[in-house]
Amino acid sequence: METETSRKLKMLGMLLFLLGLITGFIIMSVKNPRMGLAAHLGGVMNGTFLVVAGFVWNELKLSAALKKILFWTLIYGTFVNWLSTLLSAIFGTSKTTPLSGAGYIGSEIQENIVTAGLISVGLTMVFSLILMVYGLRGKSV
């Protein structure tokens, strides 16, 4: 089971890396190309992170329940990060991305969708990394 989860993380990481690369082809076609570049880089970097998570998965000393939670929070956090950033590029939102979104304003619903996505990603990824660091410290839970 552990090896299968590790393999899934690596495969999903490569898929996200591919989505990030494909996003690079549409950078100049979105409303805010700076956020398009951020989505491209976010997909590539988060995909790489998932692959790394797959390589360290079997080293984590966590209970089965915590590993299941960690798996899904990693998938959610990395894919929703890419998607929220891509939506920000397409919509031209700037509420939660004032530096890259300078000069752009999305509708209220667009801003709320991107804001909810990015806030949830931030919380999810911090939680995931805390679990990973804890699991790598060596003691079984």
Task: Walk me through this protein's architecture.
By secondary structure, the chain is mainly alpha-helical. The chain has one domain (2-136). It is built from four helices and no strands. The radius of gyration is 16 Å and the shape is elongated. The two termini are 18 Å apart. The relative contact order is 0.16. The model has no long low-confidence stretch (mean pLDDT 94).
Uncertain spans, ≥5 residues at pLDDT below 50? none
Order of helices and strands: HHHH
> Taking Cα atoms only, what radius of gyration do you get, to the nearest Å?
16 Å
Shape: elongated
Total strand segments: 0
Average pLDDT level:
94
Strand percentage lies at under 5%
Secondary-structure-based class equals mainly alpha
Give helix % range: over 70%
**How can the largest sheet be summarized?**
none
- The N- to C-terminal Cα distance equals 18 Å
Count of the separate structural domains: 1
Count of helical regions: 4
